[in-house]
Automatic annotation (TrEMBL):
Domain STAS: 495-690
PROSITE patterns reported in the protein's UniProt record: SLC26A, STAS
Entry keywords, A to Z: Membrane, Transmembrane, Transmembrane helix
Protein name listed in UniProt: Solute carrier family 26 member 3
Keyword Membrane listed: yes
Compartments (UniProt record): Membrane
Molecular-function GO term, any one: secondary active sulfate transmembrane transporter activity
Organism: Equus caballus (Horse)
InterPro entries given in the database record: S04_transporter_CS, SLC26A/SulP_dom, SLC26A/SulP_fam, STAS_dom, STAS_dom_sf
Transmembrane segments: 23-41, 47-72, 79-100, 146-175, 227-245, 257-277, 314-333, 345-362, 382-402, 440-467
Membrane topology: Multi-pass membrane protein
Pfam families: STAS, Sulfate_transp
Any one annotated GO CC term: membrane
Length: 729
């Protein structure tokens, strides 16, 4: 039977891989281009000593974090060493970052641990004798938890590998910085709560459903009187000392040649004291216990677990890559070298596949461990490979020395690494001042992850983040623009004092795409900006036109060479009769060619005929920020244009690109009413065109001798006394 790494390579390479030396050969082929990009240029004299110091320091931290984070996964601590070893080896050959330290990460460990608890709690039998937290798990239950953690790790690695091979690593862009910050902060709270049972040495039942964190807290506080004082005091001492020395390391990092390895020092002291004074027997503390020496054979995949955990594995894969890539990007910018997101996915994916195959759990990069590797002088992944050597020595030779170490010490070390994530609460104030939407994303992500758990919380957070994007585009901050200081610059008229708005011209800006969800909002904002509804004006005019036609047919309006005269003082007509006609007829263009006169809708009309007057003659729409239109919004936009054009308001569009116009043409947007000559490059070009057009019409009208009379009782003009055809614009 092929082991998982062989299966994946066989699937990707399409070859029948039968021997492990073939696997190594194929891995070398894949990684040769990556390693060759930096290894031949390695400066031995300048970099080797720094990498050795960094590798040893990072390796010691990796050992302790591997043991501590294994508690988060609910597996024996020794399996954390496998998670700290195999991914580092794979990343050395395939990774593109020179400074990150690959291995266990508390957030991922917590996510894997939640899956382990959920799957094992539904498959393992209930009942039996109660056991305390200090007792070792029976072999079958332990093996089952290790199996689930390994399967989740392998599946998440496969997902990462496929994303990298298919070049779709862009999915990580859906995890914004605000979301990642809020999620990791919530994960830190989960880690803190999960470690209370080790610090207090209490028997806490597993919970994985929503609100599980509150159920764990309830269980802890109801048993608080059963606390093991020795474990509590030891954990508090370790936590205080480690936190204090880490603060010293941070404050004096410029003066210290290497950070003080306080975690290693306290671990050695705690293990020695526990062994020397026999804490396990005297105080009944929980210790690491039996440490497996060497490596175990590869694990056999279990398709049933794959089916049960595919959703969780996808979340683990995405979060692991997002954290690792964000840290790698920071160092790549700092030291000016390129990284490849898709190659990072391949490296992390294969690392998880190999790590899970040998009973490890999901890996990414811990911020503190990467900081140690970089701050101690690490130049390349040579430091990473040397840190793996340190882990290897512990696995095969000296792991037994850690057997008397209290689990509360490991829990305290895990909590000591949470300071950076817990300090992210300060992000709330900063985000509130900069962008309230991002602040809301942070807060809601934190709440979702706390209440629903990390898996469902991540899914809900991504959905909420996408919803905020829809909300921003669905309700854009539209504005009315005006000229600044009589220049060619047009800005929001609310932002400046010296603003000039050309008479009869309205400039309206929409700062977002227009699509099916916001076309109604766009329509309403536009009508609010111009101060009227063109459809309402059009219907009023159509109703007035019906009355005028009736008056003209009854002889109540007479046309003379001097103008039009109304022969009655009043005329009554039923509005109900007009309102009962079909609405579609009222929405059609106004046609007055059958009348012997034209109507000036802004003048006083005869008798009791009232139509709202409008001073607007041109509308300019700034679409420079409109990146796309969909078919639904295109239909709505055309209807808006037709409504304005039918009440003699010219509409212009500025700032669009050729693709925008091409799409409108392809969708048959233009017709006899909405023409393709409405586009201008800038707002100022459109304004100049409108002013020149207005001046031209005005000058032509002055040349025409008007020999008709405008009656005081009506805005009707003799059509034959109008501007001659040859002078019409």
């Amino acid at each position: 039977m092929l082991w998982p790494g062989e299966c994946i390579l066989q699937m990707l390479l399409g070859k029948n891989i039968r021997r492990k030396k073939d696997v190594i050969r194929h891995l070398w082929i894949i990684s040769n281009s990556v390693v060759a990009s930096w290894l031949p240029a390695y400066q031995i004299k300048e970099w080797l000593l720094s990498d050795i110091v960094s590798g040893i320091s990072t390796g010691l931290v990796a050992v302790l974090q591997g043991l501590a984070f294994a508690l988060l996964v609910n597996v024996p601590p020794s399996y954390g060493l496998y998670a700290a070893f195999f991914p580092v080896i794979i990343y050395f050959f395939l990774g593109t970052s020179r400074h990150i330290s690959v291995g266990p990460f508390p957030v991922l460990s917590m996510m894997v641990g939640a899956v382990v608890v959920r799957v094992t709690s539904t498959t393992s039998p209930t009942g039996g004798n109660n056991t305390s937290i200090s007792d070792d798990l029976d072999s079958s239950s332990e093996e089952q938890k290790v199996m689930v953690a390994a399967m989740v790790t392998i599946l998440s690695g496969i997902i990462q590998l496929l994303l990298g091979v298919l070049q779709i690593g862009f999915v990580v862009i859906y995890l914004s910085e605000s979301l990642i910050s809020g999620f990791t902060t919530a994960a830190a709270i989960h880690v803190l709560v999960s470690q209370l049972k080790f610090i207090l040495q209490l028997t806490v039942p597993a919970h994985t459903d929503p609100f599980s964190i509150f159920k764990v807290l309830e269980s802890v506080f109801t048993q608080i009187e059963k606390t093991n004082i020795a474990d509590l005091v030891t954990a508090l001492i370790i936590l205080v000392v480690v936190s204090a020395v880490k603060e010293v390391n941070q404050r004096f990092k410029a003066k210290l040649p290497v950070p003080i390895p306080i975690e290693l020092i306290m671990t050695v002291i705690a293990a020695g004291v526990s062994y020397g004074f026999d804490f396990k027997t005297r105080f009944n503390v929980a210790v690491v216990g039996k440490m497996n020496s060497g490596f175990q054979p590869p694990i056999q995949p279990d398709p049933k677990i794959f089916q049960d955990t595919i959703g969780d594995s996808f979340g683990i894969a995405i979060v692991g890559f997002a954290v690792a890539f964000s840290v790698a990007r920071v160092y790549s910018l700092k030291y000016d070298y390129p990284i490849n997101g898709n190659q990072e996915l391949i490296a992390l994916g294969l690392g998880n596949i190999f790590g899970g195959s040998f009973r490890g759990f999901a890996s990414s990069t811990a911020l503190s461990r990467s900081g140690v590797q970089e701050s101690t002088g690490g130049k390349t992944q040579i430091a990473g490979i040397l840190s793996a050597v340190i882990v290897l020595i512990v696995i095969v030779a000296i792991g037994f020395l850690l057997e008397p170490l209290q689990k509360s010490v490991l829990a305290a070390l895990a909590l000591g690494n949470l300071k950076g994530m817990l300090m992210q609460f300060a992000e709330i104030g900063r985000l509130w001042r900069k962008d309230k939407y991002d602040c809301l994303i942070w807060i809601m992500t934190f709440i979702f992850a706390i209440v629903l758990g990390l898996g469902l919380g991540l899914a809900a957070s991504v959905a909420f983040q996408l919803l905020t994007i829809v909300f921003r585009t669905q309700f854009p901050k539209c504005s009315t623009l005006a000229n600044v200081g009589r220049s060619n610059i047009y800005k929001n008229r609310k932002d400046y004092s010296d603003m000039y708005e050309p008479e009869g011209i309205k400039i309206f800006r929409c700062p977002s795409p227009i699509y099916f969800a916001n076309i109604g909002f766009f329509r309403q904002k536009l009508f609010d900006a111009v101060g009227f509804s063109p459809l309402r004006i059009l219907r009023k005019r159509k109703k007035a036109l019906k009355k005028i036609r009736k008056m003209q047919k009854k002889g109540l309006i007479q046309v003379t060479p001097k103008g039009c005269i109304c022969t009655v003082d009043n005329f009554k007509d039923s509005d109900e009769e007009l309102d009962n006609h079909e609405i579609e007829e009222l929405d059609q263009p106004i046609n007055t060619t059958d009348l012997p006169f034209q109507i000036d809708w802004n003048a006083d009309l005869p008798l009791n005929i009232v139509v709202p007057k409008i001073s607007l003659h041109s509308l300019i729409l700034d679409f420079s920020a409109v990146s796309f239109l969909d078919v639904s919004s295109m239909r709505g936009l055309k209807k808006i244009f037709q409504e304005f054009i039918r009440i003699e308001v010219d509409v212009y569009i500025v700032g669009t690109d050729d693709d925008f116009i091409e799409k409108l043409t392809r969708c048959e947007f233009f017709d006899d009413e909405v023409k393709d000559s409405i586009f201008f490059l800038t707002i100022h070009d459109a304004v100049l065109h409108i002013l020149m057009k207005k001046d031209y019409i005005t000058s032509k009208e002055k040349e025409v001798k008007t020999d008709f009379i405008v009656n005081t009782n009506g805005g009707l003009h003799n059509r034959e006394c109008q501007v001659p055809l040859e002078t019409k614009f």
